[in-house]
Amino acid sequence: MPRKNFQFTSESVSEGHPDKVCDRISDAIVDLFLAADPLSRVAVETLTTTNRIVLAGEVRGPDTITPDKLEQAARNAVRAIGYEQDGFHWKNAEVSIHVHQQSADIAQGVDAAGNKDEGAGDQGIMFGYACRETPVLMPAPIYYSHKILEAMAAARHRDVNMGFGPDSKSQVTLQYENGKPVRASSIVVSTQHSEGLSQEDVRELVRPFVESTLPEGWMCSEEEFYVNPTGKFVIGGPDGDAGLTGRKIIVDTYGGAAPHGGGAFSGKDPTKVDRSAAYASRYLAKNVVAADLAEKCTIQLSYAIGVSKPLSIYVDTYGTGTVDDAKIENAIAEVMDLSPRGIREHLQLSRPIYERTSAYGHFGRTPDADGGFSWEKTDLIEELKSALD
């Protein structure tokens, strides 16, 4: 029997967090290749530390994408975030590039040939989740954690003198009653700030962003509102802590409210099922909930490297389904081709749409006119219902 009254916490980190800087650089490189050739293969990791950026990985794409262009993509990403600090600056950071051609052994498993369809780029398990806690069918704690930092970042970009630096974190704990979130029991925000601002100054700068993001009446007590608990946060970003691509996978997904297969998204082209099948799982779970087939839904897909079909499809509606979970599994397989190629084509993923995903979550976002966040559409509702008739 699931608990009905409890507290649950999720965290988010801003675009200027060291790991998110790396995610953005890696995804900028994915976009660079896909813009030049939609069939490019990319698996590029980034490391950042004090005034240093290191790129490593393997690619297959046009020769026009030179090391100089990779370096410029990295600098542009850092510049867009807003790093112009002594310890990390888009213009003078040292950039080291260790990117080589994709392994022929991997390529032969993934490439379509003869009667063989395009295979998965790796083995693995991927999860998607949706629930009715927010309008975008995301868990409320991670949704509000993201929104607080998004609002702060937007204000920083509008007014660079307001006192916020690029690096920040949030953590939202919500009280659930009868299985539904009703208020915040604690809020934590840590943000890089200008020298000379006191902890109380920063607290009052942060406060309106929290209060305007949460639903009316949800603000926690003063005793449970924590802003920069250590007292000072002037040195931040990669100068304060090294960053790596792919270290914020729970921030990227559901804030711990749903399972995670373990694979990161950023830096990978859509033949990598770590990314594309996780997007497909979310797409399907969101459509299941949007179709009123369940109040919440988890979907798991699994793959083997070089094999085109998913090895398994699993659905769990936590007892909230209006039809049997096994019937939803069958309907899912009927309404969408879940091969790597099928996912890529259905969601039109072979486009330069990934840099924008690198902060504030890959899910719960608004679909863009150019195809960004296509996995957030709810255009399968009628097909799912028909498949279940």
Description:
- This protein has helices at 18-36, 67-81, 104-110, 140-158, 199-213, 237-240, 249-252, 273-290, 325-335, 340-346, 381-388; strands spanning 6-13, 41-49, 52-60, 84-85, 88-89, 94-101, 124-131, 164-177, 180-193, 225-227, 243-244, 296-303, 312-316.
- The chain is an alpha+beta fold.
- The strands form four sheets. Strands 1-8-9-10 form a four-stranded mixed β-sheet, with helices on one face. It has a four-stranded mixed β-sheet with strand order 6-3-2-11. The chain has a three-stranded antiparallel β-sheet with strand order 7-12-13.
- Helix 9 crosses helix 11 (381-388).
- The chain is flat.
Summary keywords:
alpha+beta
Describe the secondary-structure layout.
Blueprint: E1 6-13, H1 18-36, E2 41-49, E3 52-60, H2 67-81, E4 84-85, E5 88-89, E6 94-101, H3 104-110, E7 124-131, H4 140-158, E8 164-177, E9 180-193, H5 199-213, E10 225-227, H6 237-240, E11 243-244, H7 249-252, H8 273-290, E12 296-303, E13 312-316, H9 325-335, H10 340-346, H11 381-388
Parallel strand pairs: 3-6, 9-10
Antiparallel strand pairs: 1-8, 2-3, 2-11, 4-5, 7-12, 8-9, 12-13
